[in-house]
């Protein structure tokens, strides 16, 4: 079939739209198979697509139409301006989590200046939080934990990919961290309640690792556990930062206030004005 790049993308976008799927994925697929950046892609709209490129492109579109996320098909996602490998063993990093890193870095500068700090990321998955923090604050000593050995293999490759030295530790949540004290602990734990499954996009539910999505106690188990167990692990001053479900702020704030009565515990909204982060500053 003799089609231009533009015609192929348009046809793919129409198919995706008919199924209520993200049409932007068609552009990402075309840029991937042609190796073009945004500017070159736009400048090449009217060029004929080669048979080989056409076959690769429609192979990706066929996978997309099954609901598989474009990030898993292409094997990568951008986070905080850095490139990360992603596969079915790790969650796809979200823009909301970029905000957790952004505000944690801001608060770290206020609390600690430029001193060397001990930072841990609990439940690291792809390593996105730990690696982005280390890239932005190179003198921090950063460790990251995960229960999944296969997730940690991805995270280690991402550290190499981004040329940072992060120590990865296999274990259950905070347990690998108990041998020392920490200045900052960050976490984006599983926080979706079981009953919310029916509201989820099949693209997420069918393809992303469910152990990284769902938590017991109406999605609150890991927050309660961390709030109860982190106090002996924290230096003074210290910072704890969690990503949260947008309806969980008040309850998680209560957990942290109970364990850290002397701390300032603040709920922070994301760019969409939803409660998305909670920071506990311990003085």
Automatic annotation (TrEMBL):
Domain of life of the source: Bacteria
UniProt keyword S-adenosyl-L-methionine, yes or no: yes
GO biological process: methylation
Domain Release factor glutamine methyltransferase N-terminal: 9-75
Binding-site residues for substrate, renumbered to this chain: 188-191
Keyword Methyltransferase: yes
Pfam families, A to Z: MTS, PrmC_N
Reactions catalysed: L-glutaminyl-[peptide chain release factor] + S-adenosyl-L-methionine = N(5)-methyl-L-glutaminyl-[peptide chain release factor] + S-adenosyl-L-homocysteine + H(+)
Record key words, sorted: Methyltransferase, S-adenosyl-L-methionine, Transferase
InterPro entries cross-referenced by the UniProt entry: DNA_methylase_N6_adenine_CS (IPR002052), HemK-like (IPR004556), N5-glutamine_MTase (IPR050320), PrmC_N (IPR040758), RF_methyltr_PrmC (IPR019874), SAM-dependent_MTases_sf (IPR029063), Small_mtfrase_dom (IPR007848)
Domain Methyltransferase small: 118-197
GO molecular function: methyltransferase activity
Enzyme class: transferase
PROSITE patterns, A to Z: N6_MTASE
Enzyme nomenclature, EC number: 2.1.1.297
Annotated S-adenosyl-L-methionine binding sites: 123-127, 146, 188
Function summary: Methylates the class 1 translation termination release factors RF1/PrfA and RF2/PrfB on the glutamine residue of the universally conserved GGQ motif.
UniProt family annotation: Belongs to the protein N5-glutamine methyltransferase family. PrmC subfamily.
PANTHER family, alphabetized: HEMK METHYLTRANSFERASE (PTHR18895), MTRF1L RELEASE FACTOR GLUTAMINE METHYLTRANSFERASE (PTHR18895:SF74)
Protein name: Release factor glutamine methyltransferase
Organism: Sporosarcina ureae
Gene name for this UniProt entry: prmC
């Amino acid at each position: 079939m003799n089609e231009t790049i533009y015609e192929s993308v348009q046809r793919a976008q129409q198919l995706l739209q008919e199924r209520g799927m993200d049409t932007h994925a068609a552009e990402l697929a075309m840029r991937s198979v042609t190796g073009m950046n945004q500017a070159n892609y736009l400048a090449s709209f009217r060029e004929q697509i080669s048979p080989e490129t056409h076959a690769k492109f429609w192979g990706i579109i066929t996978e997309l139409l099954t609901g598989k996320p474009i990030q898993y098909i292409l094997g990568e996602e951008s986070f905080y301006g850095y490139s990360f490998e992603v596969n079915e063993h790790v969650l796809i990093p979200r823009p909301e989590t970029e905000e957790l890193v952004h505000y944690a870095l801001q608060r770290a500068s206020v609390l600690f200046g430029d001193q060397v700090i001990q930072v841990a990321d609990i439940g690291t998955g792809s390593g996105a939080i730990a690696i982005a923090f280390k890239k932005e604050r190179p003198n921090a000593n950063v460790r990251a934990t995960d229960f999944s050995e296969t997730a940690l293999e991805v995270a280690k490759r991402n550290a190499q990919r981004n040329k940072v030295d992060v120590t990865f530790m296999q274990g259950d949540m905070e347990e690998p961290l108990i041998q020392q004290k920490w200045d900052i602990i960050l976490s984006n734990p599983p926080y979706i309640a079981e009953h919310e499954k029916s509201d989820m996009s099949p693209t997420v539910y069918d393809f992303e690792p469910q152990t990284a999505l769902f938590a017991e106690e109406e999605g609150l188990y890991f927050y309660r556990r961390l709030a109860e167990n982190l106090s002996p692990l924290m230096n003074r001053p210290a910072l704890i930062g969690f990503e949260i479900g947008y309806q969980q702020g008040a309850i998680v704030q209560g957990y942290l206030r109970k364990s850290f009565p002397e701390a300032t515990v603040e709920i922070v909204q994301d760019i969409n004005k939803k409660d998305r982060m909670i920071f506990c500053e311990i003085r």
